[in-house]
Specification:
16% strand; single chain; 8-stranded parallel barrel; TIM Barrel; alpha/beta
Length: 322
């Protein structure tokens, strides 16, 4: 019997490419974009290479992304004003609503996803409207979430991505869409969103850190697995078109388990902290940025993600297609 030698298939790059089991494609990638009312772009300090884009520069950066073959973005808005109710999130002239209208007019085939939450729109920084006890008022929050979601699809969004982790959020949005002529618009649900330390740079970017308390009462405990599967199944049953796991790298096991359970596509969000760690280590010459970036994305894809939201989208696309 001849000796099995798997290394025969690793001898040169062409062989390794021939037998590679997991492949990244630009079609897998969604680029997050921060949009602002400011009249000048500026770099986010804790996320090198990421910017707040003013409305008059948003088309230019999206065009560059689409030339790389990426056909989807997810938008996060930086409002001009904040209050207890997050009123600006439902403003027809709000930053997201304006951005979606502008982008849709220029790029009719682009997949536009909008984040639907309250944290960056509220003074308190929580993901819902608070009651007198400073807890999430579920009914008031869901009603406001319906209005926010409708304003996004009314402006031209293809998908709304609720990230507030409020029970029933998918059901409320689905009913609002179906009852208002938007049956063909999708919901990308942050169904499995852990209460993670890896969100820090994002919270800096949109000034959304809670002013008091934390989000542990509505985001998931990092030690839980069965709860993740329960959340994913509930949201799929309520009408979610895509189920998301967030963060990605610390929860590769969860991505795989969710992939095995649900029938709809699975997305994973390589969040700001994951991005920032690779960037910081690379800037200190501790790791190779390109190789680490691709390896991390391959790991997310190998775990079962059909879609990856990543701040490395443009950089990864350049390497994938080179």
């Amino acid at each position: 019997m001849s000796l099995q030698k798997p290394s025969r298939l690793r001898r040169k790059a062409s062989l390794r490419n021939l037998v590679r089991e997991t492949r990244l494609s630009v079609d897998d990638l969604i680029r997050p974009i921060f949009v602002t009312h400011r009249n000048k772009r500026f770099e986010i300090k804790s996320m090198p290479g990421q910017f707040h884009f003013p409305l008059d520069e948003i088309e230019e950066t999206i065009e560059a992304t689409m030339k790389l073959g990426i056909n989807g973005i997810i938008l996060f808005g930086i409002p001009e004003t904040k209050d207890e109710m997050g009123t600006d999130c439902v403003n027809k002239n709000g930053i997201i609503q304006q951005a979606v209208k502008k982008i849709r007019g220029s790029f009719p085939e682009l997949i536009i996803i909008t984040d639907a939450c309250f944290c960056q729109y509220t003074i308190h920084g929580h993901c819902g409207i608070l009651d007198k006890n400073r807890s999430i008022d579920r009914k008031s929050s869901l009603k406001q979430l319906q209005k926010q979601a409708l304003s996004h699809v009314g402006a031209g969004a293809d998908f709304v991505a609720p990230s507030c982790m409020i029970d029933g959020m998918v059901k409320y949005i689905r009913e609002a869409f179906d009852n208002n002529g938007y049956e063909n618009r999708g919901i990308l649900s942050y169904a499995v969103k852990y209460g993670s330390a890896f969100y820090g740079p994002f919270r800096d970017a949109v000034d959304s850190a809670p002013r008091d308390g934390d989000r542990k009462s509505y985001q998931m405990d990092p030690g839980n697995v069965r709860e993740a599967l329960k959340e994913a199944q509930i949201d799929e049953n309520e009408g979610a078109d895509i189920i998301m796991v967030k963060p990605a790298l610390p929860y590769l096991d969860i991505i795989r388990l969710v992939k095995n359970q649900v029938c709809c596509p699975v997305a994973a969000y390589q969040v700001s902290g994951e991005y920032a760690m690779i960037k910081a280590a690379a800037q200190n010459n501790w790791i190779d940025e390109d190789e680490s970036m691709i390896e991390s994305l391959l790991g997310i894809k190998r775990a079962g993600a059909d879609i990856i939201i990543t701040y490395f989208a443009d950089a990864a696309a350049k390497l994938i297609t080179s």
